[in-house]
Amino acid sequence: METLVYKRPESLLKDGHFTFCPGCGHGVVLRIIAELLDEFNLQKDTIAISSVGCSIFLEKFFNLDVAGASHGRSPCVATGVKRCKPDKFVFTYQGDGDAATIGFNETIHTACRGEHITTIMINNTNFGMTGGQASATTLVGQVTTTTPAGRKAELTGYPLHAAEIISKCDGTAYAARVAITSTKNIMQAKKAIKKAFEAQINGLGYGFVEVLAACPTNWHMTPVESVEHIDKVIETVHPLGVFKDITEQENK
Amino acid sequence: MNGDMSVIISGFGGQGALFAGILLCHAAVVEGKHTTWFPAYGAEMRGGAVNCSVNISDSDVPSPIIDEADAVIALNDASQEKFEHKVKSGGFMIINSSLSHLKTKRTDINYIKIPLNELAQKLTQPAFVNVIALGAFLEKTKILKIESVKEVMKEMAKTVSAKKAALLPNNLESIDFGANLIRQQMVTA
Amino acid sequence: MAKVLVKGNEAIAQAAINAGCHCYFGYPITPQSEIGEYMGKHMPELGRVFITAESELASINMLIGAGTTGTKAMTSSSSCGIALMQEALSAMCCAEVPGVIVSVMRGGPGLGNIAPAQGDYFQALKGGGNGDYKIIVLSPSTVQEAIDLTYRAFHLALKYRNPVMLLADGVLGQMMEPAEFGEYPYKDPDVTQWALDGANNRPARNIVSLHMPEGEMEMLTNRIFKKYEEVAKNETTYEDYLLSDAKLVLTAFGSVARVAKAAVKRARDNGMKVGLFRPVTLFPFPDKDLHDTAQKADMILDLELNKGQMLLDVRSAVFGACPVEFYGRPAGRLLTPDMIYNKITELYSKLENTQKTEAGVR
Q1: Do C57 and A83 touch (CB under 8 A)?
Q2: Right CATH for A26-251 from 3.40.50.970, 3.20.20.140, 3.90.1570.10, 1.10.287.4070
Q3: In the complex, which subunits touch A with 3 or more CB pairs below 8 angstroms?
Q4: Which CATH class is domain B5-183?
Q5: Subunits with 3+ C-beta pairs closer than 8 A to B
Q6: ipTM of this predicted complex?
Q7: B34, B61 in Cβ contact below 8 A?
Q8: What is the pTM (predicted TM-score) of this model?
Q9: Could you give the number of structural domains in chain C?
Q10: Chain A meets chain C (3+ C-beta pairs below 8 A)
């Protein structure tokens, strides 16, 4: 007797192919989201909000209704959708350039309003799609195309810690930072995203998961080096952790 | 221009110049007339200069903006200064002589000087200078019935907070008092 | 229903409610804050959505969210606030997202002042957003018309899946006059064929504004411009005020048009053949009708509270059929009936003198 151990999630398009660079973290996270939507049986009741950056082409991968948003504004579009369709599941999929840089004001206010939506923010510490420029989360010393000598704190300040700041907003139900650098971490990441989804499903408030993800192309590293770089360097600046979780309190 | 009237009511924020205009417009609607109310004010919520232009007419009012008004009600000196030249020749200006000691400049218009703030002290407190002036204006022009304004006040009292609604008797007293000033020629007109 | 005395801004808000507006998203700015205040009181009472957004960027993008679900929604702002919405307006046209935007113009450029102005004709009609797109722009000149055109804005937004702007100015927003709230007169189209509500028993849909494959944007742009031709064919509206024998034709939109009307009345009383051509839809602009009018007239006088913006569309429509003069005041200063009347008499006597001279030469 055969046991099916691998199945393509219903929430992914049958003929969709990820078009990301080798070693990029996006594919893993999109797959986690699709699996969870299947597990919650939400494929038919979800509206995904795409953003600007490598996170943009959701409609090419997801078997979901997708609304596009301008750079940084997906939490607002999501707010509009969710307020009109409160019984639908609504999430935004953004990068650090989108959610933490141009759109951080929108992200914070969406959290403060406690919108019943979920944001998955891929943090690869640079603007990936436009060719690797420094973003708000870029590490001090990190070489990017706009900080060729490394980010200098005295010139451009310090990296923004999105998950920690969002955790301070009263409307946030869940805020965490995860990585996808190992099988164990991927399982942790899935658990965190699941919690953030549950926060929305149970009407508790805003869920925010920041995922540290590799950008080998713009980091000028191999995929393996990129993963090591996240574990050894980035996590010292953007530490993994659950910064807020009211879903636990609710369960007690 | 039968039955047509344009008036500018001006003062500093808090004196109720805009509200006097609103009362007038509502009363015009009660009497089935056409009317427009157009305000102008500065950035301050209180104390800045404010004024409104009110048109009342038996026919359609195309322009809410007034070049020359049939009447101006100036609740302070700055308003007198600003709008004295805006009164139509043969028109009149009500001046609050409690707050304006400026000399009048024109001979082709009538002036009605009323020490509104002093007179208001004689009434049940709080009394309202804007409403006293409105009473005087209506008695002088007869453009609308005082009763129509009273009807508006009574209707408004039904929709505002209890605190504001409690001021209805004071408002009614103020408008009658203003009308009486003209009727009994208690002010120089 | 009987006429009630109502402020322009509040009339727009109540009309939106009557039109079935389910969501209002806004950010305070003078001279239109009464719209948000009115909605803040009434929308929650009705169980509808009201959000004071963190910025105009946020409010217009919330409007997009509501629009993608086919829900009637509105935002409102003024000059500098509308400036912040331009990116989203372009995106809405591209992704064909319906929505109603109320713009109550104040003095500019910059923060300018809070006095009434019409300096945002270009902003509304020629766009600060990127790319080839058009938004439908309606221009009320009375409080009654503000109500009627708010109804129409909601209908047109759904009918054409396009943003519709109600372009008012501070005079109309702040003034009060009696008006009547009739019932919403339109039958809106079915949105279920395109709106997002989850891919339930149908293929997944998307409403996005990025189209990378070669030629896709060209096809899309051509298609939406075909739609704009339909809009022009079906929706162009203007008011003809004493035009049939007018030698001097005034063109004006919004509150200036009603001030101009007062001047036209006076000019007619004094035997001058003057009329007023008032575009009600600014896009689609009534260019053919204006051209026909100009062919019968001796001169056009365009009046605006700016340095000459609609003037470009007027000239383009007139296309040399007669001379076009401009008279305007920028930055929150008003034109009064006297000022317009004086301009009329100046130009009218010029016209008559020219005709006399021409007759003499012949």
Answers
A1: no
A2: 3.40.50.970
A3: C
A4: alpha beta
A5: C
A6: 0.94
A7: yes
A8: 0.94
A9: 2
A10: yes
